[in-house]
Amino acid sequence: MNLYEKLANEIEEAVQRGVFAPGERIASVRHASQQHGVSIKTVLHAYALLESRGIVETRPQSGYFVRELAAPRAAGKKAQTSAVASEVDVSRLVLSTLRSIRANDAVPLGSPYPDPTLFPWRRINQYANAIARRHASWNLIDDLPPGNPQLIRQIARRYAENGVPVDPDEIIITVGATEAINLSLQAVAKPGDTVAVESPTYYAMLHAIERLGMRAIEVPTHPADGIDIDMLAQIIEKQAIAACMVMPNFQNPLGFQMPDARKERLVALLAAHEIPVIENDVYQELYFGETRPSTLKNFDAKGLVLHCASFSKSLTASYRIGWAMPGRYRAQVEKLKFLNTLTTPSVPQVAVADYLRQDGYDRHLRQVRKAYRQQARIMSAMVLRFFPAGTRVSSPQGGYVLWVELPERVDSMRLYQAALGHGITIGPGMMFSTKNDFRHFIRLNYSYPWTSQTESALRTLGELVAQMA
């Protein structure tokens, strides 16, 4: 057992015995380092492990505190084998993981964000600065919903050029796709409702369900074909489903592109039962094939598809410009946008619109797709080379993440903590489910250029997996 694991276990036992009461502050990192005779780095890793277990929480400028309702260790939960709606509570694990990725300056194999060096952020900033100078004599008022008309036109034009007929009046600009997803879910379901999701599913979907006090029911998802439509049909027959949330294109973490026939069948099934479907299509532009894939929106005849997307994964993450096309729920989503955040800043919207109109967005995307396609092949090959027998990898058709199945004895949370000790981050599989089905899975990010440091990190990761296996 590593020192940080031993320290974390000691503190957890003290909490369970009542030595530290709920809401009570535990020792500072520096004090704990002196008290236990270990390094500050060891204490940080121990506290991160306790945070991921739900034992403690951090409070800005205050320190670490025992949670009011300390949760049992996630690794101790039994896997659910049947399709049962469950309460959602993955946000603490995700937040703890993202903090570790940012704070430790580690090799970002676990990062959910694309490599920003591939994005034309300097050029977009130039447009933003020019807009600010142009309107220096008066206050540039932020755009009320639905958003800036110039940007809405550019988005609608891009869909039209790619074979998706869109009414510009349907588009509502949001603060990234996350807000679009939250507003869409809020428009179609209420607290206590059950929402069907893929399994594994992108944790932002689970966050939206958790935030709104709803329940998730996970539907098995094929690594090439997508959500199991037959299983979904059986679930719909047995219980009330308020909505369905899916990523049909380059799903995070599996990376598949759902075939058109299955997209059409999924939309038809849900339409027959008048169930809305929220389509998260943030990776739509990052395809590895020759043409941009279709969307569920292509097959929507009843306005039940609430399509959500953004520029964060393909153009710039810093401005957080997203949008929703909510079909028959447009008026409700627009109202909720106004009630939730009132407006979306104008300057970023106009800057992105100017870039789309005047610069080489398609040329930029071709370069990004080429880089990701090459790096996906390298990452897949190196994982299979350095990791022990029994390891399997996904076959992403776009995007920038690789889903890795490890030998069953490997606990991805233990691997996550061990990897942090070597300056490496990973995405543990437990972030992508409300259950414990993906305990021996991890997600890796291949958007960053392949370097000797990346290869060394992957080799080290493979050695850690072999030790645990």
UniProtKB/TrEMBL annotation:
InterPro entries per the UniProt record, alphabetical: Aminotransferase_I/II_large, HTH_trans_reg/aminotransferase, PyrdxlP-dep_Trfase, PyrdxlP-dep_Trfase_major, PyrdxlP-dep_Trfase_small, Tscrpt_reg_HTH_GntR, WH-like_DNA-bd_sf, WH_DNA-bd_sf
Pfam families named among the record's database cross-references: Aminotran_1_2, GntR
Domain HTH gntR-type stretches: 1-69
GO MF term (any one): pyridoxal phosphate binding
Top-level taxon of origin: Bacteria
Keywords annotated in UniProt: Aminotransferase, DNA-binding, Pyridoxal phosphate, Transcription, Transcription regulation, Transferase
PANTHER family for the chain: HTH-TYPE TRANSCRIPTIONAL REGULATORY PROTEIN GABR (PTHR46577), TRANSCRIPTIONAL REGULATORY PROTEIN (PTHR46577:SF2)
Family: In the C-terminal section; belongs to the class-I pyridoxal-phosphate-dependent aminotransferase family.
Descriptive protein name: GntR family transcriptional regulator
Source species of the chain: Caballeronia humi
